[in-house]
Design a protein that fits this description.
Layout (H helix, E strand, L loop, with lengths): L1 H5 L26 E3 L9 E3 L7 H37 L26 E10 L2 E8 L5 E9 L2 E7 L13
Parallel strand pairs: 2-3
Antiparallel strand pairs: 1-2, 3-4, 4-5, 5-6
Length: 173
């Protein structure tokens, strides 16, 4: 319960009613994708041109994925906050009287950090049991991918931008 409260500020894709979770309601678009949320809501699409299987084969997984987007995005934001905190600790090498003690900082975002500078745009399914979430930055012209592996009925983050080989237990470190 404490864990959920610490990260309750995330949940930006938490309104499941805005997602298409019924496989029979999923439809392809002319540009080779399928929206899992209405364009007027979140506008998140799964890009099918590089998909490992036919649309009919992956429909059930896409619908399941729509139910998991909030948790996946929350994991991305937690990883981002945790990696930012580590970068800050590593980069600070001020003289002793000016040194800042970051050990007292919590892993949860402060109110001014709650709004992310990036949004989820596309999802790619190039390999079975692997998805790539493509994020677009809202403050500058950049984007990055976050790769998840689906195994043992759970999603595990494998890469975040240029950071590869993320262990299953990264949150415990």
């Amino acid at each position: 319960m404490i864990y959920m409260q610490r990260y309750a500020g995330f949940n930006r894709y938490g309104d499941l009613s805005k997602f298409i979770t019924d496989p029979d309601l999923l439809q392809t678009t002319g540009d080779g994708g399928v929206y899992i949320s209405n364009e007027d809501n979140y506008g998140i699409a799964v890009y099918l041109k590089t998909c490992y299987a036919s649309f009919d084969e992956v429909k059930p997984f896409i619908a399941f994925l729509a139910t998991q987007i909030c948790e996946l995005d929350n994991a991305v934001q937690r990883f981002d906050r945790k990696s930012q905190k580590k970068r800050i600790r590593r980069d600070v090498s001020l003289p002793s009287p000016y040194r800042i003690d970051y050990s007292s900082m919590e892993d949860n975002p402060t109110p001014q950090e709650e709004k992310s500078d990036y949004i989820l745009a596309y999802i790619y399914m190039e390999e079975k049991n692997r998805i790539s979430l493509n994020y677009w930055c809202t403050t500058e012209n950049s984007e990055f991918d976050v790769v998840f592996e689906y195994k043992e009925n759970k999603f595990f983050m494998r890469s975040f931008g240029i950071i590869d080989n993320i262990p299953d237990n990264w949150e415990d470190e």
